[in-house]
Design goal:
By secondary structure, the protein is of the alpha/beta class. The chain is globular, with a radius of gyration of 21 Å. The chain has an 8-stranded parallel β-barrel with strand order 5-6-7-8-9-10-11-12. The chain has a 4-stranded antiparallel β-sheet with strand order 1-2-3-4, with no helix packed on it. β6, α3 and β7 form a beta-alpha-beta unit. It contains 8 helices and 12 strands. The two termini are 28 Å apart.
Length: 329
Amino acid sequence: MMMAAHLHFYNNASSLRRPCNNSCAYRLSSHSRRSRGHSYHGHHTSLRRVVVSSSSSSSSSSSSSSPSVESSPLVKICGVSSLACASNILEGPKSPNIDFMGMILWPGTADKPCKRYCANGNMDEVAKMVDLAKQKDVTPVGVFVDEDADTIMQVANQVGLEWVQLHGDGARAALRKLPMKLKVIYVMATDPQTGKLTTPKPGEDAVEDRKKSYDAGKNPMAAVDFISAGRRVVDYVLIDGPSPGSGESAVDAKSGGLAKLQVPRGCSRKGWILAGGLAPDNVQTAIETCPFMPNVVDVSSGVCTSDGITKDADKVSAFVSAATNAMVA
C-alpha cells in the first residue's frame, strides 16, 4: 500500500490542489508565478488560481455533492534571444505572468543560422538572462538541438541552467548520458494528419540498441540490462508539429484538429507541453480541444513583433490571459 501511494504521488508531482473557503482553489505548482507574490521558503512553490464550481451553493450543498475543480496550464515563452528582450517581458511595465523562459543555445547551421540564437552565443549575457529569470521566479530553459551530452552539461554549468530542452535528434540522443540533476523537456514531433507521434519516446532508442545487441549475441543480458542503457527519465514531453519549432500545428484542423492528438502517457515525471502554432487568438481553443489538458503551453513566433525575433510584451500578456481563461475539467 505504501509503495502504491508513493508511486501515485510521484506520477502526479507536478500539481496539488487545495480548496479554499471562498469557492476558489489554488494549485500548488513546482514553478513560481512571481505576480502572485507567494513563495514558500525558497522552494519555488507557487499558487495558481483555479475555479471551483458546484451544483449547489455552499449554504445548501449536501455532504454527497462534490465540487468540480478546473485549472489552467503553466506558460512557457520560448526563443527569448537577448537580455533586453528578457528584461522587457520579465520586469517591464507590462510584464506578464510566465512560468518558463526558453533560450535557444544552438547557432543553427552554416547555410541556415538560427535567427533566435540566444545573445549570438555570448554566454556572459546568457548567464545574466538566467539570473534575471531566477530572480523573477521564472524557470530558465536552455534549448539544444544537435549538441552531445558533454556540450549540454558544459553550457548548463557555465550559465547556471537547471533545465534543458532536447529539441533535435542529436540532443535527444544525449539524454542517456545526462545527469539526473538536469531537468529535461523532451521534444516530440507529430504527424499532422493523424495526430500520432513520429519521434521515439524517451528511452525507446536504448531499448532498440539492447535488442540489437541481444540479437547479435554480443550481450546475452541485454534484454534486462537497464543500467548500462543510461538515463530514460524526463520531466516533460513537449508535443510539437511535424517540424518542431516551425510554428506548424501538431494536428491539421482539416484532419480533426488537436482532438486527435495522441498524447503519450506515463513517459514523463510532470506531464506534457503543447506547442506548435499557438498564439493569443487560438491558445484557449487549443487547450480546450486537446484530449486532456496540457500541463504547460509553449509559444514563440505567436508572441513576436514584426521582426519575428523580439518578444512583444503585449502579445505575451494576451497569451497568458487567454491560456489562463482556458478551463478543462
